[in-house]
Amino acid sequence: MTDRKSLGDSPTKIVECVRTAVDAGADWVQIREKDLSGRDLLTLTRAVVSLNKSNHGGVHTIVNDRLDVALAAGAAGVHFGGESLPAREVVQWCRAGNAPQDFLIGVSCHSLEEARAAEQAGASYILFGPVFDTPSKQRFGPPQGLALLSAVCRAITIPTIAIGGVDETNGRECLRAGAAGVAAIRLFQSGRKLGELKAAIMRLHESE
Length: 208
Prior knowledge:
Elements: H1 11-24, E1 28-31, H2 38-55, E2 60-64, H3 67-73, E3 77-80, H4 87-98, E4 104-109, H5 112-121, E5 125-128, H6 145-155, E6 160-163, H7 170-176, E7 181-183, H8 194-205
Helix pairs in contact: 1-2, 1-8, 2-3
């Protein structure tokens, strides 16, 4: 998950981080640059999509909030938060032939009820958290913890991605709790070299 402000407000560094992350084994890239203009976000998304398609065909590029940018850039999907467009309406519009059949629609959830609602709305997957304490998610309240993450994973059938304070150590606990994957900013934008990041991702997979 990207955050250009932690990289000196540099879209170019985002692309560099994406390249390192996918070379290390990341299989999704979520572009989370909500304050960029539509034009700048489209330019960035196209660069990431092009990188992933040319060198890493199986890597999905997801765009936060901007359905128009995701479709125009040929991204794999769009992700919505609590203040975004209603997921149900977006799903209906996309499934009516206005988006590729395999276009992904994700929703951020912070409770079991929200997770169930997202599944009922037709979401492709959810991000659930914050599982652990992290500065970027403090406005969403205290950490949800592994027990609630496990309950959510058991309650719904669509993939649950754990987020919030996740690293290569506690991320293994998220996978053991039933999460289909983990999402993070600091883990992938910490300035680690390729070999170090590969080792971190390998440690995540030790739970499998």
